[in-house]
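Appendix B. Chain record.
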Amino acid sequence: MVVKFQLLCAILYLKMKLVRVFLFFLLAGFLHLEAQVADSLKYKSLDPYYFHLEYLKQDSSLFLDVRQPFEFKGKRIKDAINIPSSKELNILADTLIKNYSLFLYCSTDYRSRSAAEKLYDKGFRKLYNLEGGIVAWRKEGMPVIKGKGRRAGSRGQGKNQ
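Structure tokens predicted for this chain:
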């Protein structure tokens, strides 16, 4: 009888320990998800149609192409400004009015997400990322142009200046 009681206590102790471990990992998972949600609130990721629509609705807005210059010389969104490096992005951020709406894109949206987070940290709050990048934009049949465009530092910016 004493052995059964000790065995039952040992099993109960192990179950309680297992529950603690489970709760620890569950709590850690929620904290990780909460951190991800905070990052996603820094900018809005929009599909090509809504990205373009939102651009048309905004008064002071810029298309920022964060691809490399050789990519930018190919197909690109009309009126986009090419800002391929973090250094150029930091310089541009210091020259822009913080309430501009910035519409960022790259090839697939990896680099533009990173750029949006950097701009958020610089104080910009109206940030939009093209979900799927220019690949998705072209796949949806949205307008593109080819040829040389404006690079960071060139005269003229955005629309409605």
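Further analysis of this model is presented in Appendix C.
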